[in-house]
Write a structure and sequence with these properties.
This protein is an alpha/beta fold and about 425 residues long. The protein has helices spanning about 15-20, 35-40, 50-60, 70-80, 90-95, 130-140, 160-170, 220-225, 230-235, 280-285, 295-300, 365-370, 380-390, 395-405, 415-425; strands at about 40-45, 65-70, 90, 105, 115-120, 125, 145-150, 175-185, 195-200, 215, 245, 255-260, 260-265, 305-310, 315-320, 330, 350-355, 355-360, 410. It has two domains: about 10-270 and about 395-410, Rossmann fold; about 280-380, Alpha-Beta Complex (DNA Methylase, Chain A, domain 2), CATH 3.90.120.10. A ten-stranded mixed sheet has the order 3-2-1-4-7-9-8-12-13-11, with helices on both faces. The protein has a five-stranded mixed sheet with strand order 14-15-16-17-18. A two-stranded antiparallel sheet has the order 5-6.
Length: about 425
């Protein structure tokens, strides 16, 4: 059966046959006028893992011409899925000067601490980290766009200095930078997975003044922006009023724009393009191998658990020990969504109550919750698949973000535009 390379779980009940093989993620036009632009766009994928960004690029008609990762298991999967010469298995420091010219750079870069030694105006030193490799590549190849992904805590690490350093470094390269915290559950995936996406559009001129901001954004619709006050909207359109990066808060807001070391940031109340919610029970296999069943072992200590029976961030928690502090002793239900999948081995053995049984999630369910084909990691062991999927960028999220950054952008509404929008809603 032919299928879209971006696989998610939207409309599961209406696409059950597709879902059994690797459920189809309906492709959409995520940007204005992007289809023609995609034809000749070349992508590079750093820290590629098993190819989350690659699947997104393929679905958009973008050619990935170079990819890199240092993990042998991930590279084996990448080559199996995309071809024997599709990925360079090497330390990025050894090959960063061999990267060909490209139009968009993508990467889910590892989160590493920066040095505070020699801190200048509150901006920390990123030299020697893998983030420096990204900066080196952007400085040398100067692609028109970039898309980076990282964990939610990036916004609050070291009281905001870490993220401010990232914004400072990227905006100094003449990129208009924007970021937004997104959740996989809004993209048809039954998982509470919050990730920060940072995108950049290279300024067309060498004008480094704030007037080079073109008044458009990529990661927020006008409906999303309508939750801001007229004063905030006016500030976005008056970049000379943006704050210098060293005046950031201890926790950076979940959306913002930055250029030339100045920024505006706010927490947006809505995500207008979120998809229909999908529950964990909709993606779970009906018949599973006995090796995933932990019923006998669980019943030995289940009496020590205290009932919880509530939803936390959409995740159904039935019971736990020590208020959830004892890892591996929480019992999850299937009436909500899954907690964040990770590459941490201990997380692979969390228990889920399915009927009168207690079991862990299968590797197939991990693939579904991350938006990958169920056989994407077919050459890896079941044990390794948990780590590989848990460490990946969900392709549906990457698909949306890449489509947006390659689009024409959304004009920030002026005060008069906001008044007209308000009248239209009456």
């Amino acid at each position: 059966m032919a299928r879209d390379p971006i696989l998610g779980i939207r409309h599961f009940e209406r696409h059950r046959e597709v879902y059994r093989e690797g459920f189809g993620y309906a492709e959409q036009d995520f940007g204005q006028g992007i289809s023609k632009k995609m034809k000749n766009i070349r992508a590079v994928e750093l820290f590629a893992g098993i190819g989350g960004f690659r699947l997104a690029a393929d679905s958009l008609g973008i050619e990935t011409i170079w990819a890199n990762d240092v993990d042998a298991r991930a590279c084996a999967v990448y080559r199996d899925r995309f071809g024997t010469d599709s990925v360079v298995e090497d330390d990025i420091w050894h090959c960063r000067n061999k990267i060909p010219a490209h139009d968009i750079l993508t990467g889910g870069f590892p989160c590493q601490p920066f040095s505070s030694a020699g801190k200048k105006q509150g901006i920390e030193d990123y030299r020697g980290t893998l983030f420096q490799a990204i900066i080196d590549v952007l400085r040398k190849t100067q692609p028109s766009f970039f898309v980076l992904e990282n964990v939610k805590r990036l916004l609050e690490m070291e009281r905001g200095w870490h993220f401010a350093t990232i914004l400072n470094s990227l905006s100094e390269l003449n990129y208009r930078v924007e970021w937004r915290l997104l959740n996989a559950s809004h993209f048809g995936l039954a998982q509470n997975r919050q990730r920060v996406f940072i995108v950049g559009v290279r300024a067309n001129s060498t004008d480094r003044s704030q007037s080079a901001f073109d008044g458009t954004v990529r990661l927020a619709s006008q409906s999303d922006l309508s939750s801001l006050t007229p004063k905030q909207l006016a500030c976005i359109l008056s970049p000379e009023r943006w704050l210098p990066l060293e005046k950031h808060a201890s926790t950076i807001p979940t959306w913002g724009v930055c250029f030339n070391r100045h920024f505006f940031a706010a927490d947006l109340a809505h995500f207008s393009e979120k998809q229909e919610p999908v529950l964990l029970r909709q993606v779970m296999e009906h018949v599973v191998d006995p090796k995933f069943d932990f019923t006998a072992a669980t019943l030995k200590w289940l009496h020590k658990n205290r009932p919880v029976n509530r939803f936390v961030d959409g995740v159904e928690i039935l019971s736990n020990q020590a208020g959830g502090a004892r890892m591996g002793y929480t019992i999850f239900g299937t009436g909500g969504i899954a907690p964040t999948l990770t590459a941490t081995t201990s997380r692979h053995y969390e228990r889920y109550k399915v009927g009168d049984k207690y079991r862990r999630l299968t590797n197939v369910e991990y693939a579904r919750l991350q938006g990958f084909p169920v056989d994407h990691c077919r050459i890896a062991s079941t044990y390794d698949q948990y780590t590989l999927f848990g460490n990946a960028v969900p392709p549906p999220m990457a698909h949306w973000v890449m489509g947006k950054v390659l689009g024409e952008g959304v004009p920030v509404p002026s005060e008069s535009d906001q008044s007209q929008m308000a009248l239209a809603l009456r």
